[in-house]
Every structure is written in structure tokens, then in C-alpha cells.
Design goal:
alpha/beta; TIM Barrel; 9 helices; 8 strands; about 35% helix; binds D-xylitol-5-phosphate; binds zinc ion; metal-binding
């Protein structure tokens, strides 16, 4: 399996000290910054947009920024995030009128493209567009809030996604988002995930490094 990546979700960070919080998780060993964009339309919550992404780049963040769009429509905001320094841009197929076109748009803007599957969304369309996908994100909670419990059926879905990715022969990361903790990461990794989003598990802990190290150790064990 490819190297595992830990992507703390800044949704659970202290927004009043966002730059410091991002510096702290990266110094604690995080690989990516997971950036949750919610529009109070596609999901019932409202968070941050391209200006905040750009501000993190200006602050000096050089790590990959993993933008998770929970917005409808999708396409209008993609160039703004590319200009703001996004590395990966992922979206929910239900929120896009033309999934193939949105994937193309993200890649044309020089970013990696990800497709996100909600707990009730089947993986069927993945095979139709797999040549254009750099990342598959399996939601293990319903999108909109941090701190929810991991939905157990996500493990079987991860296994199905892993099989589709492996059959494609392409270099595609399999990311999981929602309810990931140090004490369930081993079974999630065993189901095929290689990229782990964790918000509350990291930011609600007193010692970010201890949680990130425990996560890596439990995957390796
Ligand atoms: C939920 C977001 C997640 C969320 C994860 O819509 O996409 O990234 O922040 O938070 P935890 O790890 O607390 O479930
Ligand atoms: Zn997310």
C-alpha cells in the first residue's frame, strides 16, 4: 500500500487562531490540510471559502491543501480555489450538473480532482470517470458537521472502492472522512483507505503530535 497520509480537518480547529493551528498540526506530523467548504445549501452548515485558503498560503503554509467542497453549484467556485492555492479539489457528484465536466475543469486548473461519496451514494459512477479521478473520498458520516460517529457500513464501501481503484491500475488515493480516531483507524486502513481525515480526534486533543503518532502506529501495527 502507498504511504498513509493524515489530513487534519480544520473544521475542528480554533478559527480565531487558524494560521497557528495549521502550523501546529503540520509541525506535529500531519501530511495534508483538509479544508471543509460548506455553503448552507448543499449541507446545513456554513464555513470557509477561497479567501481563507489564500490567507493560509500567504501565512506560509506549503503543505498540500485538500479542499472538500460541500457546495452547490460546484463549477463556479473551482477556479477561485485553484487561484487560492488548493492542491486537491473534491466534490460531491450530486452537487454537479455534469460530473465529467467538473473533473475536467479541476484538472485544467492544475489541481488534483477528487470525487466524494456520501454514505447513501453508490460508487457506480466511479468506473465511468475513473480515468479523470486522482482521489476517491468515502464519507463515513453524513457531510455537514465534525464530531459525528463513524458509520460502520463505510468499511464495506471502502473495500469496494479499493477493488475498483486497484482494478483500474491508476494511482488514486482512497481517502476516508468522518469519525476517524486512533482507536478505529486500523480497521479502516485494513478496508483499503490510505488517506485519513480527522477533525475532532486531533483538534480536540491536548497533544496533536500524540494523536497523529498513535494513528500512524495503529495503522502499522
Ligand atoms: C464533515 C467533514 C469532515 C469533518 C470530520 O462534513 O467533511 O471533514 O470535519 O470531522 P470528524 O473527524 O470530527 O468526524
Ligand atoms: Zn471533509
Amino acid at each position: 500500500m502507498s504511504k498513509i497520509l493524515i489530513a487534519p480537518s480544520i473544521l475542528s480547529a480554533d478559527f480565531a487562531r487558524l494560521g497557528e493551528e495549521v502550523d501546529a498540526v503540520l509541525a506535529a506530523g500531519a501530511d495534508w490540510v483538509h479544508f471543509d467548504v460548506m455553503d448552507n445549501h448543499y449541507v446545513p452548515n456554513l464555513t470557509i471559502g477561497p479567501m481563507v485558503c489564500e490567507a493560509l498560503r500567504r501565512h506560509g503554509v506549503t503543505a498540500p491543501i485538500d479542499v472538500h467542497l460541500m457546495v452547490r453549484p460546484v463549477d463556479r467556485i473551482v477556479p477561485d480555489f485553484a487561484r487560492a492555492g488548493a492542491s486537491v479539489i473534491s466534490f460531491h457528484p450530486e452537487a454537479s450538473e455534469h460530473v465529467h465536466r467538473t473533473l475536467q475543469l479541476i484538472r485544467d486548473q492544475g489541481c488534483k480532482a477528487g470525487l466524494v461519496f456520501n454514505p447513501a451514494t453508490p460508487l457506480t459512477i466511479l468506473e465511468e470517470v475513473i480515468d479523470m479521478v486522482d482521489l476517491v473520498l468515502v464519507m463515513s458520516v453524513n457531510p455537514g458537521f465534525g464530531g459525528q460517529g463513524f458509520i460502520p457500513s463505510s468499511l464495506a464501501k471502502l473495500r469496494r472502492a479499493r477493488a475498483i481503484i486497484d482494478a483500474s491500475g491508476r494511482d488514486i488515493r482512497l481517502e476516508v472522512d468522518g469519525g476517524v480516531k486512533a482507536d478505529n483507524i486500523a480497521e479502516i486502513a485494513a478496508a483499503g483507505a490510505d488517506t485519513f481525515v480527522a477533525g475532532s480526534a486531533i483538534f480536540n486533543a491536548p497533544d496533536y503530535r500524540a494523536v497523529i503518532e498513535a494513528m500512524r502506529a495503529n495503522v502499522a501495527a
